[in-house]
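Section 3.1: Structural characterization of target chains.
Under the original work plan, the team committed to producing a structural model for every single-chain target entering the pipeline before any wet-lab resources were allocated. The record below documents one such target. The sequence was received from the expression subgroup and is listed exactly as submitted; it comprises 361 residues.
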Amino acid sequence: MPQNRTIRFGVIGCADIARKVSRAISLAPNALIAAVGSRSLDKAKLFAEANGFPDGAKLYGSYEAVLDDPDIDAVYVPLPTSLHVRWAVAAAQKKKHVLLEKPVALNALEFDEIIEACESNGVQFMDGTMWVHHPRTTVVKDFLSDEHRFGELKSIHTCFTIGADADFLKNNIRVKPDLDALGSLGDAGWYCVRAILLAANYELPKTVLASREPVLNEAGVIMAAGASLYWEDGKVATFYCSFLSNLTMDITAIGTKGTLHVHDFIIPYQEKEASFYTSTESKFDELVTKWDPQPSKHTVNTDLPQDALMVTEFSRLVGEIKFNNSKPEKKWPTVSRKTQMILDAVKASIDRCFEPVQIQE
């Protein structure tokens, strides 16, 4: 993309994840880091220096200053979840397109405020779920949609667990009720739920039931939790998320004819290569000593890492709006809202002593 059609990003906040996305912006062919804002100018300067910001990048000692910069097209917002409504809405009102970290809000009602602000101001919204932009995800989705190789989805199980250290469990924003009150449900569970929705072709379940005895910290924030999801046609999904178990990020999806296994679906084992396993019409041999046929491994390569592909796609959509007068793509806020609705239902089930919760679109 020519320089004059490059999307200029402002980064609001200097969270750890902003380091990763700043790198992604620098790798994306149609994006440029143009500014960073922090609550202190010194912190913004240190962040820019540590992350190789271009010489022309502007440094601001407030978030507002980034939003007031007329040269900024879009903002990346990695702030704690409790601050998302305030700053995402403010960004949209200043006509800045919004790339927002997940979970997008503390609940769907909050997120509706963000969507309304983005829609009324004609700006693009996307959440920061990187793995869905990896080309592997497209190939996986093709398999799940293949009636001959996979058939009809019957069940799916996902998990994302992180073995957090003592410092994380004491001091990280994700364990603080005033910053990220959903804890591991919002942080890790978000990915599990998105994978379930992708496999179910983004059809919301009818009923959600939280697993009993989630682990809470002293402040009441969820450290580990699980849930079961039920559809009217008989599909069932389960997921488990935790800050207290060894690093694991698995998908197992079972259809009437095939099975999918992905063992690193959120962050691939390698940045530019990702694999998954499939089997179709598996059975045992005559003496029940082995499988026939054996599951097959599929590997997908990518020149750009998935976070840079996310930025590239977001910037493409912003460019279509800015240069071609296109309308914002509604797919991304719709998928974000469905993910948030399921998290809300899980939290409600926990709060109601593990009663089933019905989801109403």
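The longest strand covers residues 244-255.
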